[in-house]
Specification:
The structure is a single chain. This protein has a 9-stranded mixed beta sheet. A 5-stranded parallel beta sheet has the order 4-3-5-6-7. A 4-stranded antiparallel beta sheet has the order 17-18-20-21, with no helix packed on it. β20 and β21 form a beta hairpin. It folds into 3 domains: 153 residues, Rossmann fold; 223 residues, ANL, N-terminal domain (Rossmann fold, 3-Layer(aba) Sandwich); 97 residues, GMP Synthetase, Chain A, domain 3, CATH 3.30.300.30. The chain is of the alpha/beta class. Helices cover 31% and strands 26% of the residues.
């Protein structure tokens, strides 16, 4: 056969993003279960119809390509439907960490420059608190019962979509803006487009060997984190069922019951959660169907890794490492290497390019410390409305992670420090500069620095080293009470050390290594 001229295919028929995958599954396997939440199942056809109806309702209310829609939500099926409805219009979903304090949320509301907010019913009082700091939001849509002045999500979904026709949404259209804290104390919005999410799906499929049609993905990570939304990306691509676990206080027994009841095969938890799960007397029995057990966001001890291996001997044990700007996975450590390479975050995934460089962007030899930089299809477009920060992050044509690492002779990556001075506590990122800015506002604190202390439960906890004003008797409880109006609870220091002066170098910068070495609680 001779091709004389290329066949012209409309771009909309070639799009590869998660809305089209939902539509495809709704056409090919309409009655298969897409999502389950608290025992209620949603089929692919139902999900597609609800996503379309919600998109049509948003369009009638003025939402269009390029708009931002804020989301202050917990975990439930409607959250995914809302994200997909927003993306169907080419608009960007902006999930907000519900653990942030009202002024922190208000900053994101203003920075995203959005008129519409989707909120979970239990969080409606939080919206009122945020409204005292900003009047930016003009329309509120509630997942659940809506108070006066707001609209119910289900009411919008129930509206007749009429002749709604979805616009053509190119793959390089941002789908999400995920806010991640910065070293200046102000969060930055990482713009993740549809190419990023498909790349993340392929990463998960390869790393976790997701290939069985009867796999059941069980999601406990918050949907306001990229760990939550990123973990369900492969499920859209392959059409497997996603079980959404509600947020709340962690209960290992209840989680194991849910694993058994739902037939979970692929699960993720942070090490502190795995520790509680492995200690449960019925863990082996109730978790016998697990095929892939994954973990990340904090280091795991040798003892825990051995407990996981003994409790779930037939499961593939996978550790994942990355960051929001990379959608998020960049390195994977497989179970057979977890003890042999204890402390490593694993090998870089083959779907991205990695270098370890010095400050002049020269590759450092294996075994020496440098910054790990990335390229690839999961890399964000940039930071929302922050061109200078974006340019700095992409200096030299690679994305600068801020992680200082070394690679061993087999290519395994070991994180040795963080340029961005970040603490990871219980899977949450805490940036020291942000906490230090809040401490500096206290009238009895003359000088302050924050650093991470290793912790067996949380991985790390933030510690404040402070110089107090003469005569001050400030104690930790009073400090945390004060910080409650400025910082989310998880960012507040868990310990406080009073010093006469902070150790500083010749350039005036605090020497945090000296603080860690002198920490009596380390």
């Amino acid at each position: 056969m001779t091709i004389t001229e290329p066949r012209v295919i409309p771009p909309a028929q070639r799009r590869n993003h998660w809305m089209n995958h939902i539509a495809g599954h709704a056409e090919m396997r309409p009655d298969a279960v897409a999502f389950r939440y608290r025992g209620a199942a949603t089929t692919w056809r139902q999900a597609h119809d609800r996503v379309t109806a919600f998109a049509a309702a948003l369009q009638r209310r003025g939402v269009k390509l390029g708009d931002r829609v804020l989301m202050l939500v917990l975990n439930r099926t409607e959250v995914i439907e809302a994200v997909m409805g927003v993306n169907t219009l080419g608009a960007m979903a902006v999930p907000i960490n519900v653990r942030l304090a009202p002024p922190e949320i208000a900053y994101i509301v203003d920075d995203a420059d959005a008129d519409v907010l989707i909120v979970d019913e239990p969080l409606v009082p939080l919206v009122a608190a945020v409204a005292r700091s900003t009047d930016r939001v003009k329309r509120v849509i509630v997942l659940g019962r809506a108070p006066d002045g707001a609209e119910a999500f289900d009411a919008l979904v129930a509206e007749d979509p009429g002749g709604f026709v979805a616009p053509d949404v190119p793959e390089d259209t941002p789908a999400l803006i995920m806010y991640t804290s910065g070293t200046t104390g102000r969060p930055k919005g990482a713009m993740l487009d549809h190419v990023n999410m498909v790349g993340q799906a392929l990463t998960c499929i390869r790393a976790m060997e997701i290939f069985k049609e009867d796999d059941i993905g069980f999601m406990t990570a918050p949907l306001f984190h990229i760990a939550g939304l990123g973990s369900i990306a492969p499920n859209f691509l392959l059409g497997i069922t996603t079980v959404i676990h509600p947020l709340g206080g962690f209960d290992a027994g209840a989680l194991l019951d849910a694993y058994e009841r739902e037939g979970a095969t692929i699960v993720f938890n942070v090490p502190a959660q795995w520790k509680a799960i492995c200690a449960h007397p019925q863990a082996r029995e109730k978790g016998r169907g697990l095929r892939v057990i994954s973990w990340g966001a904090a280091p795991a001890s040798e003892t825990l890794l051995r407990q996981m291996e003994e409790t779930f001997p037939s499961a593939l044990n996978i550790a994942v490492f990355g960051q929001t700007e990379m959608s998020p996975i960049t390195c994977v450590l497989r179970g057979e290497d977890s003890l042999r390479k204890l402390g490593s975050v694993g090998l870089p995934i083959p779907t991205i390019q990695v270098r370890v460089v010095d400050d002049d962007m020269r590759d450092v030899p294996r075994g020496q410390v440098g910054e790990i930089v990335y390229r690839g299809p999961t890399l964000m477009q940039g930071y929302w409305r922050k061109p200078e920060e974006t340019a700095a992050a992409f200096a030299g044509g690679w994305f600068h992670s801020g992680d200082l690492v070394r690679q061993d002779d087999e290519g395994y990556v070991w994180v040795v420090d963080r340029k961005k001075d970040m603490i990871i506590s219980g899977g949450e990122n805490i940036y020291c500069a942000e906490v230090e800015n809040a401490l500096a506002s206290h009238p009895e604190i003359l000088d302050a620095a924050v650093y991470g202390r290793p912790d067996p439960t949380w991985g790390e906890i933030p510690v404040a080293a402070v110089v107090l004003a003469p005569g001050s008797t400030l104690e930790l409880d009073a400090l945390r009470s004060y910080l409650g109006d400025h910082l989310a609870r998880f960012k507040q220091p868990k310990a406080m050390i009073v010093m006469e002066a902070l150790p500083r170098n010749a350039g005036g910068k605090v020497v945090k290594g000296a603080l860690r070495r002198a920490d009596p609680g380390a």
